[in-house]
Amino acid sequence: MLPCYVVLDLETTGGNALRDRITEIAAVRIENGLETARWSTLVNPGVRIPPFIQALTGISDDMVQEAPKFEDVAHKLLEILDGAVFVAHNVRFDHGFVQNELARLDMAFKVKTLCTVRLSRKLYPQHKGHGLDAILQRHGLHTMARHRAMGDVEVVMQWLKVATQELGAASVERVALDLLQGSACVPPQLETAISDIPDTPGVYLFFGEGALPLYIGKSVTLRTRVMSHFQSAAKVAREMRILTEIRRVEWIETAGELGALLLESRLVKEKQPVYNRQLRREKALCSWYLQEDPDANPLLKLIQVDEIAPGQWSHLYGTYRSKRQATDALRLLADKHGLCPQLLGLESGKGACFASQIGRCKGACIGREPRVLHRARLQMVLAQQRLQAWPHPGRVAIREYQEESGRTDIHVFEHWCHIATVSDPAELEELGTTRQVLAFDLDTYRLLQKKLGPGMTHDAAVFVLPSGAGSVR
Question: Full-prediction pTM beyond 0.85?
């Protein structure tokens, strides 16, 4: 199949390479078609083997009690793998365990890998199952030691021999060489060909068995970013969970990073992927509205951002997911800056507030501090949280161009809201024929602060739309 390779299998205490440990190793080295080394050993994992695993593998705590620890056999493992391709059925699993065990010993590990699950999918695409049990049944193979390391190694070797006889050595070698590069990282059950994913800007969606995505991400180099998920699976628990469930990848190309960011934010909010912790749909955001009258009581009103017109958003301070979050934040500011909790609406009653009685309020509630001054201090304290006014006379567009694909995207914004993305300047006029409701989105607001905020230097890709072009009617 290949000039030099090692068929390897592990038994472990579980499926998590970050947490679980190896209990058995088996390896057979093949050079120029001939077996040159065979080695297997039990390994003391240093932890208890779960009853389920003991029943599955037949390896008990008593069996490994006197076995060497991984650190005692690491050099032997590296010796048998030296200069060879690491071959395993679902190689990502075995490679991940070896990689993590060696990392705990501060030992480097770099080896080419080949997954025989993926090899089976390529060689026998007409079949659905490609696990060892499916291969045993499909080809009429037999083993007396299923779920033991050497038993499973011998099954893989039997299958490679059968595949070579059925399809020819040249065909098997050609497919193996095609899969060799990067195969350690790619989940064996993945139905999407990595080579089909463009290395251009856009959004990618990971899907499992169901219709809803597991995860949505963005990148300026889609294929590279998708591969980085696979490469980090052995070290990041969340990535490992995703990759055990993933079945296919879909993607949407954009002309640039801004388009990818906007699309990612929208899709995550719409589809609510299980593994996206950021950008998830916000509940209706609330914010503090500062009353103009210094004698108003309370000085602040908590309102829903969407309840007031976009042109009035600059009168709002802070964005919060709940009344409790907003109240807690305001209480901290009041304590820190000596503001009156009674005038802020944090405390009911008349006369002196409790804070003034213990010296934490400057007495605006009882006339010791002028209310005009108290309101001015409050406004200064809140200033950093103020939602910025839209610094443009109307709608603004940002053009992105992707040289490789020739794609152009024009993103249109008004009052910090993303109105639409079009691919042709002529489409801008069509935006003015339909009435659109502006809805505040915190992620878009923060993104545009870096692009269109006051004082920002704009390049030729940013332009103000003439009146009527894509305007709200």
Answer: no
